[in-house]
Amino acid sequence: MTALTHTRYMTATHLRQLWRQPWWIAVSLVQPVIWLLLFGALFQSVADLPGFGGGDYITFLAPGIVIMTAFFSAGWTGMGLLEDLDRGVTDRLLSSPISRPALLAGRVAQQTLTMVIQSLIMVGIALLAGATFANGALGVLGLIGIAALISAAFASLSLAFALVTRKEETLIATLTFLQLPLSFISSTLIAPELMPGWMQSAANFNPVEWAVEAGRAAALGDGGFDVVATRAGLLAAFVALAAWLALKALEKYQRSL
Amino acid sequence: MASSAIEAEGLVKEYPGGVRALDGLTFGVEQGTVFGLLGPNGAGKSTAVRILTTLARADEGRASVAGHDVAAEAARVRSAIGVVAQRGGADREATARENLRLSGRLHGVRGAELEARVEQLLGGFGLADAGDRIVRTFSGGMERRLDIALALVHRPRVLFLDEPTTGLDPEVRADMWQEIERLGRDEGITVLLTTHYLEEADRLAAQLAIVDRGRVVATGSPDALKRELRGDAIHVELEGELNGARAGLDRVAGLRDVTVDGSALRARADDGARAVPSVLATLDSHGVAVASVTVARPSLDDVYLRYAGRTFGEADQKENGR
């Protein structure tokens, strides 16, 4: 109970911090829209290739970009924590009765809530750009639910990584190194049938691919409900693992003091 | 009988690389007093605070705060204490009021009680007009006052102040001293203060422990510690070598603890002013030229020299240069 109450306080605190950085909000809203429109225009003719079933590309792309944005922004969650560690905020909280999980969960929740709003805006823009979501509002809700799972998982991993390395440069370098490969070894931008065989096999182990498949199945109806259910299950397990790692990393940090 | 608010027994803490920050630290703090841990940078004061505030764990030894064991009953200790760390730790992107509210809520203070306490603290710490300002825009002194207010929202029984005036301007430091004196007097809470400023310990602490290299080398009230030195400090700045004068000095009546460090000759005497002529005559008879002589009432610097075997300034610089 305390953990939930404290998570609420911390989430509100972090949301307010974000709200006071209008430039950051503007950039984080505009960036995915640019991806959506830019990739949509650049790869338009890709949809003519076999494997796309003749659908239009923006419809195919929209769920992928929602997932990609969730995955990309979640990676940066650790940056705020690094600043708190540096300024002594985390130490002050650790010597107060705050619930330990809440100390981390507040940041994950803030990141994921922000992502939900981002996703809704992206879906709106996609609709204006001519995308159609075959499964309607319920399907879009499913897509956003899946995006929330991938966001929570990578936000937790980012916090764990920040607590272990305690260096902004290391986090930035690691994210830069991982983000594009993990996005490209998935069907975010291109139909899986068009990927080389080894990439298709590798993608089976990529949580981003689980999320893209599930999100697309939910929103567009490709692949059916069991694709959504199995991938969501995998992602939930991944979230649990990431959260456990983050808590272990917090314990490790405290032992180093 | 006053019970102990803080007890530390044989605390040992070693960091990777063989750095022994604490080497059997032992001290006790009576309830309702201001207690000072005085020592140069790197003496282990902050490590001690981190252990007593449940942030870090000791490798050996035990400690209790407000009657609770810091390792076994960490949650109870956290509810009973307020902590002002060296780095502060206020949320700089939030207002003073928002910071105070969050701190109160995490300690279970809610509703009207919380609002009243927040207003009281803002007023009491001279932040009434700054309550809705973002902390990032605060001056160093304002931020420090907020740090202390943050640690007091839940009316803790024990307050930890780790180097509360480091990095502040001299005037702001004097203001802080008044605030801390007021805390000990009005709020009636136990305060553990760490400092590497001798005059700060002298002015604020009722009881002191002098810490050097992770151990307590002396305890007592500042006055008692100074009194133990029995007498005044004589400091002679020499222009030449002491040569054979040392033996002569040992025969000067009432002169004790003669030490020579380069061109600095230090000694103690019950009545410093009376001993100076004999000291100068002895030096003169051995042909040692004297640049200056000072006689001073004993200071904590002398206490430190006596127990740690080096002057405070030397120790501080050495540790800083590490």
Structure, briefly:
The complex is a heterodimer of chains A (257) and B (322). Chain A is mainly α and 257 residues long.
Structural overview:
The complex is a heterodimer of chains A (257) and B (322). By secondary structure, chain A is an all-alpha fold. Helix content of chain A is 79%, strand content 0%. Chain A contains 11 helices and no strands. Chain A is elongated and about 60 Å long. Chain B is 38% helix and 28% strand. A 6-stranded mixed beta sheet of chain B has the order 6-7-8-3-9-10, with helices on both faces. A 4-stranded antiparallel beta sheet of chain B has the order 2-1-4-5, with helices on one face. In chain B, strands 12-13-11-14 form a 4-stranded antiparallel beta sheet, with helices on one face. In chain B, a hairpin with a 3-residue loop joins strand 1 and strand 2 (19-30). In chain B, helix 3 packs across helix 4 (111-124) and helix 3 packs parallel to helix 5 (140-152). Chain B is elongated. Chain B starts with a strand and ends with a helix. The mean pLDDT of chain B is 89.
Protein traits:
heterodimer; A: 257 residues; mainly alpha; B: 322 residues; alpha/beta; 6-stranded mixed beta sheet; 4-stranded antiparallel beta sheet; 12 helices
Secondary-structure element order of chain A, N to C: HHHHHHHHHHH
Supply the number of helical segments of chain A: 11
Q: What is the CA-based Rg of chain B, rounded?
A: 23 Å
Task: Kindly report the average pLDDT value of chain B.
Answer: 89
Shape of chain A: elongated
